[in-house]
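Exercise 7. Given the components listed, write out the predicted structure of the assembled complex. Treat all entries as one system.
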Amino acid sequence: MISIKDLHKSYSIGNSSLHVLKGINFEVEKGELVAIMGSSGSGKSTLLNILGMLDVADEGDYILDQVPIKNLNETKAAKYRNQFLGFVFQSFNLINYKTALENVSLPLYYQGIKRKERQEIAMDYLDKVGLKEWSTHLPSELSGGQKQRVAIARALASKPKVLLADEPTGALDSTTSYEVMDLIQKINEEGNTILVVTHEEDIAQMCKRIVRLKDGVIIEDKKINQVLATSHV
Amino acid sequence: MNSFKVIFDRDTWQEIFGSIAKNKTRTVITVIGVLWGIFIYIALSGAAKGLDNGFERQFENIAMNSMFIWAQRTSIPYEGFKIGRSIELKLSDIEYLKQRVPEIQYIAPRNARGVFGGTSPLVSRNNKSSNFNVYGDFPVYTKIATKKIYDGGRFINEEDNKYSRKVCVIGERTQTELFEKDENPIGQYIKIDNIYFQVIGIHKFVPGGGFETDGDIFIPFETFRKLYNTGETVQWFTVAAYDNADAVDVENKLKATLKRIHRVSPDDERAFGGFNLGEVFTKIYGFSKGMTLLSLIVGIATIIAGVIGIGNILLISVKERTKELGVRRALGATPSEVRNQIILESVFLTLIAGIIGIILGALVLAGINAGTQNLTDFPYTNPTVPISFVLGALAIMIFLGTLIGLIPAQRAVSIKPIDALREE
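Answer.
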């Protein structure tokens, strides 16, 4: 599903340049649930941004579902993001003046899907994350866990090939974190490919594979026995 | 997405309403900025037009390019005549003037009793009587100063003059003072200085310009001449020049010609008096044209200021919404979709503000109109703004709204989604 070869990325800070990614190689198969771990400054967020087409690598190849991601202009990147990727952020990033339902249907709006159909699809996904009754509520009326579930529904609504989650439980308490991870595991069981960036060990253990980054290189890449989130609740 | 489809798409508008409704205070203040601009524009240009119309109404009954010329006393001794000689205009001057001054369209010699010194003649009927000014006129006078005659009457005609008929055209006040309410004066007789005159018409008095009143009585020039024994004397000429002639130039030519006829020094400034309506009109029209131009400039400048205000607010709004726009981009909004949204917000706000401003401006103009309706002395009538001005203002607003919207829109697009999302 994802194939990365010899990925380099550096940022220039003033005169000096900071080499953040120093040749990353890795593959992700369809249906995997991968945790990307590392301390802050290890390059994990940069890697996720490149995978999310929010940032461009200096060197190396990135192939997503047989489509080489290269030389994208903003319009094309937006199209690809819309079709291929679903984002889940640490700070939820819901649009605060839109209801849960409107938030979920936003990526479908940018796909040009008709209003009625859009709302039906969005309602299905809200139902899937268990928030059907909250569809008319604004984000400010939802708890943190509920907000993250709305965000997950929004990321899923466009049927992406890969779901990218950047510290999805970073702003949540542990109980709520496990609920969100439970949801992520269930979605993964349905065959969705998911990448989770985290620095929490217990969250990483709930994935099927852990990739550890340090100073811009992969120091460990192993498959693990998944801990079910439900066992913590 | 093609831009026409975007404009007529319900979803686009929902997005715009959503973001506009999000910050109501901001939206209202922005709207007031443009609203005030267009309101000033409409109110000012309407007021200027009202003034314009008002002047036009004041002078609608008199030819624009007209003047009065009368004779006074000489102030320079000339050709053996001593200083201070009184001069009298003569009927025979007319032919000479017409020959020498080809710009003359109409020339009407006039005589009057009670206007410039002297007492108004006593006019009586049965047991009622009063004093009114009496004018001796040729029918050509109505070519220069229009006289509206009520139904069933007429002004003096050539035949009346030819046969020195004792007929008269009376004013509205003359009618109310000498006749009963339900009486029709036409065909009735009144006595002017003890001579019977038949009433042939009643003129409707239009206020403004000149010394005429609503009690004036007009009789044929020839009849006046016989009645008051004025001979060849003419008190003053009323002259209308052709529209394309320069009024001041014509006045000078007339005076110069008269000086030659009456053997007055060409340098004598006081021998002939004149009042040049054309000159006055030129000044008044220049003034009201200036007013219109001024109101146009002030109005448009205010609109521009308001639109710049919208641009400013949207710029702040874009800054505020950096994160939201980043999320939208991450979710698949193309740069052009974001740009269109910001521009449409700008245009929409401008238009809404503009339409409300036009309505308010129109209401104020209607109020001024109602307030000045009965003020006949005040030169103010029917303050309107031509539809082309309104549409022009709207077009300018849409154009400026788009233009000013481009700045925040470009800014919104220039922020990379990654930077937008990073911003906390």
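Discussion: Chain A has seven helices and ten strands. Chain A has a mean pLDDT of 90.
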